Amino acid sequence: MLEPGNNDELPAIPAKRYFTIGEVSELCGVKPHVLRYWEQEFPQVKPVKRRGNRRYYQRQDVILIRQIRSLLYEEGFTIGGARQRLSGDDAKEDLNQSQQVIHQVRLELEEVAQALKR
């Protein structure tokens, strides 16, 4: 979902189990209040809450937040469009299209292999 080019501007995700909201803010290039808002808008973002309601994000949460950031800021999706994209409706469509492309490439490669055998 996140193209490799989009990761260049963001820092690498350290090998830690949990991240505070401040750390995630820096890793994803968004402010903490935006992360709290996205928690309300995207049901997939569910940080662990410990005493004092402190949020602790896991690695997959950081990756998901980077995907949301990419959809909203770089690809121009609305909140609703990004939510739909992440919910899987469009993901199934993308998977189907990818499978069709793979099938077509496979057929073309088989034709090339046959031509080389001759």
TrEMBL record:
Family annotation (InterPro entries): DNA-bd_dom_put_sf, MerR-type_HTH_dom, MerR_fam
Taxonomy, superkingdom: Bacteria
GO molecular function: DNA binding; DNA-binding transcription factor activity
Pfam families assigned: MerR_1 (PF13411)
Domain HTH merR-type: 18-88
Residues spanning the signal sequence: none
Swiss-Prot/TrEMBL keywords: DNA-binding
UniProt-recorded name of the protein: DNA-binding transcriptional regulator, MerR family
Organism: Aquisalimonas asiatica
